[in-house]
């Protein structure tokens, strides 16, 4: 019998999502430079998932499709209102942010089941889907990015309109602002029904301008370069000059990358402390023991790896994300190594809380992975980036297929052995000894593309 069954009340859910926080940017994931004591503590007291991946997207603003996949539990071509490739400029059109209205979000499902749902922070998936998902909220930012002080912030609107001219300019750092809304909600909550608290930080996304005290913890000259640092990417991947890649000079300079890493880690440490405020509020209100805390990110980022700065690629640094769950019904100090996908979080939460799962959800619950009854939620993970990149990985062998599109990109394939080459520096696609692995992964990728009706197949007339 689960703990919440014995109490006769379902657990609360505090769901925390960061922006651009890759899997290895946490101490508990093996990073010996970054300081993340709160997240490390949650991992020690709960479950740390080692192999969770995003599915990419059809726009350079990858937070839009990534969050849509996470919220709906559906594949990257179905989760939003458009499946076509979208330019970064087009993403500024709010209609293209929207979640597919036929796919309920998991906060929406919990609200229907009697939960009080409260949202704060970044929402880059349209006003309508926020209104459907949350019965309350505060300090809401509708958009992709901005200065961390001075964001346009909305109060909760029960009518769900959220006119842009009604936004107020924030005076606090975004991370502190959103944590404050979460703490206030927890401290003031007196209702009998359980709650969902959704906290979406804009950190550690650029502009990475942490408070000076945090930046001083990370002297840039002390930052180790990643093992797969390159001055430039070895070939045209179809997106070498997108906005994110313009944030550092070409070719990449080691001292410049070290500065970016120092700012990145500073933002993460500042955010970690603000998460600590939320955890402390749960403890002070006696809610901690009946609350499932989830920490994850929408996607990762390169910051010098492979000569890249952004997340517009299908390497590990862009797709591989952290996932930590702690609370009732979950073991303590458990590492789960099997493959999972961002869309698997929705059904996992539903199984943990015995909440009915909508038929629209394609993700697979990871509860049996947590209990040790299953090794993985899935055999392979897949991802797409615009119409220039596709990826499949079985946890060891990983294939990335590149296409030319609009005059950019290169028609080629990469094959990596992640067991022996986790930094993806040794391409084995031309190795005759690896031909069997190459063909197998090519077959798996094509089968997935067909199953999800990947628009690139129609565009190129590829039917297998």
Q: Can you describe this structure?
A:
- This is Sulfatase-like hydrolase/transferase.
- Pfam families: Sulfatase.
- InterPro entries: Alkaline_phosphatase_core_sf (IPR017850), Sulfatase (IPR050738), Sulfatase_N (IPR000917).
- Residues 11-353 form the Sulfatase N-terminal domain.
- The protein has 464 residues and is an alpha/beta fold.
- The protein is 28% helix and 18% strand.
- It has 2 domains: 11-379, Alkaline Phosphatase, subunit A (3-Layer(aba) Sandwich), CATH 3.40.720.10; 383-460, 2-Layer Sandwich (Arylsulfatase, C-terminal domain).
- α6 runs parallel beside α8.
- It starts with a helix and ends with a helix.
- The model is unreliable at 1-7 (pLDDT under 50).
Short descriptors:
single chain, 464 residues, alpha/beta, Arylsulfatase, C-terminal domain, nine-stranded mixed beta sheet, five-stranded mixed beta sheet, 13 helices, globular
Give a quick precis of the structure:
This protein is α/β, with parallel strands linked by helices and 464 residues long. The chain has helices at residues 3-7, 37-45, 63-72, 106-112, 127-133, 174-188, 212-215, 254-284, 316-319, 345-352, 367-371, 435-451, 455-460; strands at 12-18, 47-53, 56-57, 116-123, 136-142, 152-153, 168-169, 195-200, 291-297, 320-326, 334-336, 340-341, 381-385, 389-393, 397-402, 412-417. Mean pLDDT is 94; it is low at 1-7.
Q: How many domains would you count in the coordinates?
A: 2
Helical content stands at: 25-40%
Q: What are the segments in which pLDDT stays under 50 over at least 5 consecutive residues?
A: 1-7
Find the structural class using helix and strand composition: alpha/beta
CATH topology of the largest domain: Alkaline Phosphatase, subunit A
From the spread of the alpha carbons, the general shape counts as globular
Q: How much of the residues is beta strand, in percent?
A: 15-25%
Average pLDDT score: 94
Distance between the termini: 49 Å
